[in-house]
Design brief:
This is Fungal lipase-like domain-containing protein. With 232 residues, this protein is of the alpha/beta class. 28% of the residues lie in helices and 19% in strands. Strand 1, helix 1 and strand 2 form a beta-alpha-beta unit. The chain starts with 5 loop residues before the first strand and ends with a helix.
Length: 232
């Protein structure tokens, strides 16, 4: 990714989400990227609506963004694209999606790539369903999920979906199942407190014994990955 002083960051929410979920996150992200010498422009997108909308409809729409081959509406991805595409002026893009928002973020980025040739983006999925990633975009996508003290995944939403696919075998006459065939390029566990809805919590009881809150753990890892991936 070529250097550019400005970076556009989009925070994409999942289903039944409070309109204020990213308020503190925006402030912290702004400081992190300004400390890097960048000028962040940060917006939020609710690709499935917020908590005031019927949950059932939102869940169905997330389902349209998960499959790899099925030609569905990609509801969240298209809604996100409508917000992102008009502002694309060549600056680097960072799309950070929580839960279903991670699905919408990837689908929007994929459509930007296929329809407009935009490739200076990075996608972060946090506590999201497993979305099959186009191998061409693998290194542009990262995946973060909550784990316990033993590193075992604890977020049930991250068990939805699959990265798997069949791969030709040199030894066998039939293809073999590869559970990581369409996985993101970077997958990392975060030891957070609470559950699926708590990655962005910043107050007690979501602060560990080292006085680090869930939000700082989450965006700290996102920031570190972006710096490595964007300038690799």
């Amino acid at each position: 990714m070529a250097f550019c002083n400005k970076i556009r960051i989009y925070l994409l929410a999942g289903v039944a989400t409070s309109p204020t979920i990213f308020t503190v996150c925006i402030d912290k992200l702004e400081k992190l990227f300004k400390d890097d010498g960048l000028e962040p422009v940060i917006d939020t997108i609710f690709p499935y609506g917020d908590a005031s909308r019927r949950l059932y409809r939102q869940v169905l729409e997330v389902g349209s963004d998960i499959p790899r081959r099925v030609k569905l509406a990609r509801v969240g991805g298209r809604e996100a694209l409508r917000s992102i595409k008009p502002a694309c002026n060549g600056e680097p893009l960072l799309l950070i999606g929580h839960s279903g928002g991670g699905a919408a973020a990837y689908q929007a980025a994929r459509m930007l790539y296929e329809q407009a040739g935009v490739d200076n983006f990075r996608v972060v999925q946090i506590g999201s369903p497993r979305i099959p990633i186009d191998p061409r975009l693998k290194d542009k996508v990262s995946y973060f999920h909550a784990v316990d003290e033993k590193g075992k995944p604890v977020d049930p939403i991250t068990r939805i979906g699959s990265w798997g696919g069949f791969t030709a075998s040199r030894k066998l006459a039939v293809p073999m199942w590869n559970r990581m065939k369409y996985a993101p390029g970077h997958i990392e566990g975060i030891r957070t407190i609470g559950g699926h809805a708590d990655y962005f919590r910043h107050m007690a009881p979501y602060i560990d014994q080292q006085s680090i809150c869930n939000l700082d753990k989450t965006i700290g890892r996102v920031h570190n990955w972006f710096k490595q991936a964007a300038y690799a």
